[in-house]
């Protein structure tokens, strides 16, 4: 009780007084709980939950003063391991600290007595009222052992809290929500706050004015009376309905519907929340209404065998959540149009990985409309088209809706989806008895109409053509946005330096800045979403804002009690706003609950990854916090568009961190906000001319031809129109040659001879898939790459050891980074200690620890090494260079198999730098190494290519110029990856052409590169690139033409682009413009050397390093490198080398690099 009184007097967080488990004090106590099992014996699930034999759950009462800040340092041992060294404290320093503590206590006691009064009477023996008050406050602060309370599951706690939030939400809506919130005043308040350090960057504050709606004149004739009536009831309130008013469509909605009803393929490219969903819902409902009317008016209305079958439609969405949301919206409108029994007869439902076997059996494939994703279409629908239910569905297919079209504009995923849709059209034509000539001539009515919606992009018609394989004559673009928009206040906010005006101290993590804003806005009733780049950041922000709410509401409730004379019931306590996290990995049921609560207005805020970036309807939001630049400008605009829906005023804040990508946009805020895409200034013809055709992606084309041949045997003449480009005749001719080559060499001919044994004519031959692709080719082709999908047996279950509830499922690729014994797992901002991980059984046991004041971050590395060479670019040329005696002058580029191994070898324990537990966890308090038995590597074999650097070049960079060789290699790898992901002048397109290779590299880790002692993990001087997806060697994929092969074959031009881009950019340390900064870098772009990369790229672009892909294990593919350095290459002499060395370092400054000087592990690994 005395300690509680002391804490009540001091207030704040200077004194920690709480129960703690012994295992929380000793981070590695969990190691003592090693399995009491025989070697090689797996424990049963029940045994895993058995009580501990030791006392790791024992609790002790912890008293800790946090008024003295000690600076610990990281030290590296002789073995190269890292540990935390605690400082020694001198006796005189401790005496001074105690004296300061006593002085603060006296001041706090005087203030407490003054606040709560003195004596109650003249008798000194009468107890003083401030002492009574002190006992009341101390009693409230007495800690309760965790064993006496079991917290609710976070999602269940949300539901309990939601009812209390509803009254606040209703009052807020009645007041106009964000429309009446003074965002400009809030921004001014931030500037006036004493903690403000000019975080708003120059040019980083502006307002986009509101936009008035533009309505169509009339829509009844367009929709018909019945559908207009349903639309009225959807959009109008009772008063308007009573007056006979009609709902009006926006001008762009009416224009799009007119084009659809004319039979054209339509793409709508307008802003977020512009009512695009109605554009594809209304035509399909009108189709069903017309069929229903015709059937009810026929002579045999109840006979399903008479008359045409019910027409069908497919809605395709990139995510399950979006499909679920649109299904609910469509069915609601359907219920307004049809009588209930008729509405229910049309089976319009989701068909995805979450659809249970019972639901599929109940529907028996009798679908009218399915809401699905490209993966289900690829694996489940197309290979099974011959089943009666699917055959009937596809024969009646009239509309295919592809929402979020911009998601498919680049990368391998977009290319895969394009080929899936071409296979769909081919099967639909076959089911309907149509020929490919009728479907592909651009004049005949199509097998189905395509409707797509997209965020604002340049040249949407080209994207529509490439994705669906349709001619330009069939595509109508609608981009005249008639929807209203409220004023949007933009703020670009740069996290301040940890020590004001001291750049060397580094920047505060954006979590700390976002915490305050999210708390401010939600407490003011402003519905807010905070977007985070990574799942971990999402959880840490959720944890931080929870701590911030606790801190603020303790003060609020204390003031209320004080105002009431120390009285107050628990029922009168103010509760913080309801805020939840939302990201991939959560269970389907949890995600649906969070979506529902958010849509219903019972959540004041949500912290999310880009899982909520797309157009799922989550109700009216008024503010968006973007925590760290989200990789692309398109994503930033999409996220910012989530606020201000329904024409409300809104706020969008981009909060930058200290990494180079963020700082580039902090220095150039208009690049992030305004439309600066180069393609908007170029003609459609110019852009189309640069877009390669399907034949430039032979590997992916072959995969889908194997799938198509399995579905229906392929005939070259009959099927060529499905698998050639619709952009131009030249591209179509090239595609046809590649298509014919793949069919004749990679597929199996089923009728190469006739019944008499004579060879059949080429035009009469049919081909099926190669036998090695059986039994199901589609299952060997991953549209999104490997890594596991939710709901598969490959995922790991994370199980709460106390409640036995499965919290999440985690893909195998993430497990090493997320689950390790002794580590902290975070779910909905709540901390769980990892008790054990069972790789063979694929589950991990975790125990909730709400009082934990620290978290963990894995210490890991990924090694990427050549495993097997399949192709070599050129012949080695050797030259005497001194040491070693013989070294290659020419850089040799090799393609083949790469062994990729990720190892988590330990973790750091981190705590916040703030006493109240808010903000980022960036203070290292311990460095732990895991035992070898727990460092099982995550290994896979991928396709890749690599360039070993000659020894003389390594010496030139590291010894002669004093630059970081690791930084030079890392920066050059980034530059090449950035160059490979875009053409020389267009970064938007690649869907049906040379899909931007989605490659990875071995990023350099600061913990290794900044060690004082050389690391035992030595890495060769090599640029290496690989596919993220593992190859299925057993499935014959070793010689597959992969994304890595395509990049290898096109490496010469990419090297030229990378060098030109870097020399053009005026920055000194690297940025996105020069290519040194790469968004997906796993090590935050820290160990990079732009001067060193410039030397490497000049060398790789010299004639001595000319790249000429060979043909050892792949089709002939040559490319000529654009040279940028003029050197004599007729002989390989020392004079050649000397001249080359001079040209490589011309104008390159000596080291050390300004961005690498003075770095320490503590500054860079967080």
Question: Your description of this structure?
Answer:
The structure is a single chain. Among the domains are: 1-31, no CATH class; 154-208 and 485-561 and 575-673, Rossmann fold (3-Layer(aba) Sandwich); 262-297 and 308-478, Rossmann fold (3-Layer(aba) Sandwich); 692-779; 862-882 and 889-903 and 935-1101, no CATH class. It is globular. The protein has 1166 residues and is an alpha/beta fold. The strands form eight sheets. Strands 5-13-18-17-14-16-15 form a seven-stranded mixed beta sheet, sandwiched between helices. It has a seven-stranded parallel beta sheet with strand order 8-9-7-10-11-6-12, sandwiched between helices. The model is unreliable at 27-55, 120-126, 786-793, 875-888, 983-997, 1106-1131 and 1160-1166 (pLDDT under 50). A hairpin with a 5-residue loop joins β3 (73-76) and β4.
| Head-to-tail CA distance between termini | 39 Å
Helical segment count: 39
Task: State Rg.
Answer: 33 Å
Query: What would the average pLDDT be, to the nearest integer?
Result: 79
User: Might you state the CATH topology name of the domain at 154-208 and 485-561 and 575-673?
Assistant: Rossmann fold
Secondary-structure arrangement, i.e. CATH architecture of the domain at 154-208 and 485-561 and 575-673: 3-Layer(aba) Sandwich
Helix fraction bin: 25-40%
InterPro entries: DEAD/DEAH_box_helicase_dom, Helicase_ATP-bd, Helicase_C-like, HRQ1_WHD, P-loop_NTPase
Pfam family, one: Helicase_C
GO biological process, one term: interstrand cross-link repair
GO molecular function, one term: ATP binding
């Amino acid at each position: 009780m005395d300690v509680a009184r002391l804490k009540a007097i001091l207030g704040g967080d200077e004194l920690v007084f709480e129960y703690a488990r012994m295992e929380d004090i000793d981070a590695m106590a969990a190691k003592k709980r090693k399995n009491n099992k025989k070697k090689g014996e797996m424990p049963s699930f029940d045994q895993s939950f058995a009580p501990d034999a030791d006392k790791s759950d024992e609790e002790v009462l912890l008293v800790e003063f946090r008024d003295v800040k000690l600076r610990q340092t990281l030290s590296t041992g002789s073995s190269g391991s890292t540990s935390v060294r605690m400082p020694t404290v001198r006796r005189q320093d401790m005496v001074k600290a105690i004296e300061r503590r006593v002085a603060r206590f006296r001041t706090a006691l005087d203030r407490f007595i003054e606040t709560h009064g003195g004596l109650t009477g003249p008798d000194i023996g009468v107890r003083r009222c401030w002492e009574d008050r002190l006992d009341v406050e101390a009693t409230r602060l007495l800690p309760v052992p965790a064993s006496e309370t079991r917290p609710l599951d976070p999602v269940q706690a949300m539901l309990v809290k939601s009812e209390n939030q509803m009254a606040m939400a209703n009052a807020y809506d009645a007041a106009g929500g964000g429309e009446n919130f003074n965002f400009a005043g809030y921004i001014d308040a931030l500037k006036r706050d004493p903690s403000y350090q000019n975080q708003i960057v120059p040019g980083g504050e502006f307002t986009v004015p509101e936009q008035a709606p533009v309505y169509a004149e009339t829509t009844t004739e367009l929709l018909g009376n019945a559908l207009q009536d349903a639309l009225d009831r959807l959009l109008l309130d009772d008063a308007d309905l009573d007056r006979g008013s009609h709902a009006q469509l926006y001008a762009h909605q009416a224009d799009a519907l007119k084009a659809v009803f004319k039979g054209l393929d339509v793409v709508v490219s307008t802003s977020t929340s512009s009512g695009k969903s109605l554009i594809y819902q209304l035509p399909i409902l009108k189709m069903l209404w017309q069929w229903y009317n015709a059937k009810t008016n026929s002579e045999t209305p109840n006979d399903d065998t008479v008359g045409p079958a019910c027409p069908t439609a497919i809605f395709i969405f990139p995510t399950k959540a979006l499909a679920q949301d649109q299904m609910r919206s469509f069915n609601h409108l359907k219920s307004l149009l049809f009588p209930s029994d008729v509405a229910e007869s049309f089976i319009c439902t989701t068909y995805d990985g979450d659809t249970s076997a019972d639901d599929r059996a109940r529907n028996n494939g009798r679908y009218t409309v399915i809401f699905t994703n490209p993966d289900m279409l690829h694996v489940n629908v197309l290979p099974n088209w011959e089943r009666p239910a699917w055959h009937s569905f596809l024969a009646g297919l009239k509309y295919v809706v592809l929402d979020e079209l911009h998601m498919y504009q680049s990368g391998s995923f977009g290319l895969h989806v394009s080929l899936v849709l071409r296979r769909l059209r081919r099967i639909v034509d076959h089911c309907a008895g149509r020929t490919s000539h009728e479907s592909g001539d651009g004049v005949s009515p199509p097998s189905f109409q395509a409707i797509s919606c997209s965020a604002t992009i340049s040249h949407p018609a080209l994207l529509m053509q490439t994705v669906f394989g349709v001619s330009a004559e069939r595509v109508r673009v609608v981009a005249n946005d008639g929807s209203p928009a409220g004023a949007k206040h933009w703020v670009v906010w740069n996290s301040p330096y940890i020590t004001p005006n001291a750049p060397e101290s580094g920047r505060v993590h954006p979590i700390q800045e976002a915490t305050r804003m999210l708390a401010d806005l939600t407490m003011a009733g402003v519905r807010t979403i905070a977007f985070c780049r990574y799942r971990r950041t999402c959880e840490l922000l959720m944890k931080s804002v929870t701590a911030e709410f606790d801190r603020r509401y303790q003060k609020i409730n204390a003031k209320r009690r004080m105002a009431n004379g120390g009285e107050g019931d628990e029922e009168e306590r103010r509760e913080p706003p309801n805020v939840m996290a939302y990201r991939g990995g959560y269970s389907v049921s949890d995600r649906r609950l969070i979506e529902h609560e958010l849509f219903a207005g019972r959540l004041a805020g949500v912290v999310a990854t880009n899982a909520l970036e797309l157009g799922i309807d989550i109700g009216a939001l008024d503010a968006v916090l973007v925590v760290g630049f989200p990789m692309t400008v398109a994503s930033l605009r999409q996220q910012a568009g989530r606020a201000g829906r329904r024409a409300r005023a809104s706020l969008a804040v981009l909060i930058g961190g200290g990494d180079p990508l963020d700082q580039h946009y902090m220095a150039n805020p208009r690049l992030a906000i305004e439309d600066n895409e180069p393609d908007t200034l170029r003609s459609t013809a110019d852009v189309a001319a640069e877009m390669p055709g399907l034949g430039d992606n032979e590997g992916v084309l072959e995969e889908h031809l194997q799938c198509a041949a399995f579905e229906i045997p392929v005939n070259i003449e009959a099927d060529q129109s499905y698998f050639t480009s619709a952009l131009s005749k030249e591209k179509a001719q090239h595609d046809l040659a590649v298509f014919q080559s793949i069919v004749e060499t990679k597929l199996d001919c089923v009728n190469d001879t006739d019944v008499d044994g004579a060879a059949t004519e080429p035009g009469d031959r049919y081909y099926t898939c190669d036998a090695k692709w059986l039994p199901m080719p589609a299952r060997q082709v991953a549209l999104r790459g490997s890594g596991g999908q939710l709901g598969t047996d490959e995922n790991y279950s994370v199980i709460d050891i106390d409640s036995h509830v499965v919290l999440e499922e985690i893909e195998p690729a993430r497990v090493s980074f997320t689950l390790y014994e002794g580590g902290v797992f975070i779910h909905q901002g709540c901390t769980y200690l990892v008790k054990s991980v069972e790789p063979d059984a694929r589950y991990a046991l975790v125990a909730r620890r709400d009082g934990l004041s620290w978290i963990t971050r894995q210490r890991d590395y990924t090694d990427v090494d050549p495993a097997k060479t399949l192709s070599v670019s050129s012949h080695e040329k050797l030259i005497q260079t001194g040491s070693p005696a013989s070294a290659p002058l020419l850089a040799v580029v090799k393609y083949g198999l790469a062994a990729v191994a990720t190892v988590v070898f330990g973790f750091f324990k981190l705590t916040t730098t703030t006493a109240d537990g808010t903000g980022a966890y960036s203070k290292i308090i311990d460095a732990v190494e895991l035992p070898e038995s727990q460092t099982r590597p995550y290994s896979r074999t991928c396709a890749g290519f690599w360039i070993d650097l000659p020894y003389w070049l390594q010496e030139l960079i590291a010894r002669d110029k004093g630059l970081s060789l690791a930084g030079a290699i890392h920066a050059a790898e980034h530059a090449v990856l950035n160059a490979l992901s875009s053409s020389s002048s267009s970064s938007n397109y690649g869907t049906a052409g040379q899909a931007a290779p989605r490659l990875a590299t071995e990023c350099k880790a600061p913990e290794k590169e900044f060690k004082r002692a050389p690391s035992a993990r030595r890495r060769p001087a090599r640029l290496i690139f690989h596919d993220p997806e593992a190859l299925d060697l057993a499935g014959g994929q070793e010689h597959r033409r992969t994304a890595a092969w395509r990049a290898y074959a096109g490496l010469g031009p990419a090297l030229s682009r990378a060098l030109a881009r870097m020399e053009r950019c005026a920055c000194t340390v690297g940025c996105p413009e020069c290519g040194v900064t790469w968004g997906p870098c796993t090590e935050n772009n820290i160990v990079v050397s732009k001067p060193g990369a410039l030397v490497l790229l000049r060398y790789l672009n010299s004639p001595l390093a000319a790249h000429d892909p060979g043909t050892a294990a792949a089709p002939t593919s040559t490319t000529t490198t654009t040279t940028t350095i003029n050197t004599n290459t007729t002989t390989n002499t020392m004079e050649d080398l000397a001249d080359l060395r001079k040209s490589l370092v011309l104008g390159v400054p000596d080291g050390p690099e300004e961005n690498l000087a003075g770095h320490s592990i503590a500054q860079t690994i967080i």
